[in-house]
Design goal:
The chain is α/β, with parallel strands linked by helices. The chain has 8 helices and 7 strands, in the order ααββββαβααβααβα. The protein has a 7-stranded mixed beta sheet, sandwiched between helices. β4, α3 and β5 form a beta-alpha-beta unit. The chain is globular, with a radius of gyration of 24 Å. The protein starts with a helix and ends in an 11-residue tail after the last helix.
Length: about 250
């Protein structure tokens, strides 16, 4: 890699860091923290895993689960400074059927293989374990901003904003049960925080007038357990086993 490419990558990382440390991102994170608290307070178990490239442990503060793991991805341009583990997205370094709760805050948007990532999440969750996802809604002001700014190749606008309906379809194919789906943050992503304060009324207005157009959404799902139902043997087959060596019913003597 030459010096120009290195400088270009450094500029991109700097822009992404600038956005995620901006006042707008702080507002969004606070809203996401409130949504996580709402659901995590009701979820129990022994092990909780959050997949998060940048590392936001504050999202898990409301959980009563004592063992919390923050995992980052080594395949990404940025590493999660607060991560306790680093792993590949497509092959999570976690044992199968071991996690009680998995939290995915804006991970799907920047995954090269979101289907594989969800399959890995399903693998590591225990039966009846819960998945809590946060994503950007393409049908919102945030989605409009993405259409205007995706060419800049920096986050969050370069991500793929998936419709909640599409995420639900993927979860259904993996035999998850959908428990909750909530939209939030109805204000446009303006950099001017004073203006964001002035249009705060859009939060209550949007929630009642266009509830499906929130800038972000949260989905709570549960991994189903398929019970193993013993197959009953047909009467004729059972009779053959019980009366093995004897004359079968109906046979001429």
């Amino acid at each position: 890699m030459d010096s120009k490419e290195k400088s270009g990558n450094n500029e991109t990382k700097s822009e992404e860091n600038d956005w995620f440390s901006s006042e707008l991102a702080t507002l969004l994170l606070e809203e996401e923290k409130n949504r996580c608290s709402k659901y995590l307070m009701k979820l129990f178990g022994y092990h909780l895993l959050q997949l998060d490239e940048l590392g936001h442990p504050e999202l898990l503060e409301s959980s009563s689960i004592s063992h919390k793991i923050l995992m980052g991805f080594k395949s990404e341009s940025q590493s999660a400074s607060n991560a306790s583990l680093i792993s590949d997205q497509e092959f999570l370094a976690i044992a199968s059927d071991s996690m009680d709760v998995v939290v995915l805050p804006h991970v799907m948007e920047f995954s090269d293989n979101p289907h594989k990532l969800l399959r890995e999440v399903e693998r590591i969750l225990i039966g009846e374990g819960h998945l809590l996802m946060i994503g950007f809604n393409p049908w919102s002001f945030w989605g409009m901003w993405r259409l205007l700014l995706f060419w800049r190749e920096n986050r969050p606008w370069k991500g793929h904003f998936y419709r909640p309906a599409r995420i639900k379809d993927w979860l259904s194919l993996l035999d998850f049960e959908l428990l909750e789906n909530e939209y939030f943050f109805y204000r446009p992503p303006l950099k001017n925080i004073r203006w964001m304060d002035r249009i705060f009324f859009l939060e209550s207005f949007g929630k009642h007038c266009w509830p499906f157009l929130g800038g972000a959404y949260v989905i709570l799902a549960k991994k189903r357990v398929v019970p193993l139902t013993p197959m009953k043997m047909r009467w004729h087959a059972r009779w053959k086993i019980i009366a093995s060596g004897l004359v079968e019913p109906g046979a001429s003597v």
